[in-house]
Amino acid sequence: MALAAYKSDIPKIQAEYADIVSRIPLVKTGDFNPTKITSRLSPYFESMVLETLLSGMGDNAMVWFYGMTTLFIVLFMSLPAINLININISRILERASEIGIRKAFGASSQTLVAQFVIENVIITLLGGLLAILLSGLFLFWFNRSGLIVYSDLSINWKVVMMALLLSIAFGLMSGVYPAWRMSKLPIVDALKA
Fold first, then answer.
1. What's the whole-number average pLDDT of the chain?
2. What is the pTM of this model?
3. Residue 9 located in a structural domain
4. What is the pLDDT of residues 21-48, one digit of tens each?
5. Beta carbons of 130 and 160 less than 8 angstroms apart
6. Which of 25, 65, 97, 165 is deepest in the core (most CB within 10 A)?
7. Distances in Å between the alpha carbon of 92 and those of 57, 81, 126?
8. Is 31 contained in some domain?
9. What's the domain count of the chain?
């Protein structure tokens, strides 16, 4: 295991390791072929993935792994986004008469879209904040529970910021289409609802 003082030192350490390995004298004897031996210094996660999941896939293994993981995440996260869109459409349909009245008094489509998108972003952001708060409480409980001796799990603030950004993104994505659709509803149809 090699430890680096700074993340920027990792490429230098890897280069030094590759240089040292290239100077090791290997002799071809019997079935042993030293040209087929490869050794490189990889980060822990990458080495575990390469050794357990993707052994024998070559140099493109991590690119393939990250690509498949990204595809899985996008497909997995599209389900709640579609669900949010359906919930927003039904929520906005319940407020069709409000939309009709506001349009009758001169509210523009852009104003209505902005209102519903902002409402939706606030709701999803509150959901994200609640999830982060519950995660923190769970980690506090888990650390004190003794289920894993000497465990000291903590919140990763980069992940928290990414979660908040994703909450805002999902709020925007799931709110724009329903709001735009309802803002185009004719006043007469909106007032009949």
1. 81
2. 0.59
3. no
4. 878 777 777 776 666 666 777 777 777 7
5. no
6. 65
7. 50, 16, 19
8. no
9. 1
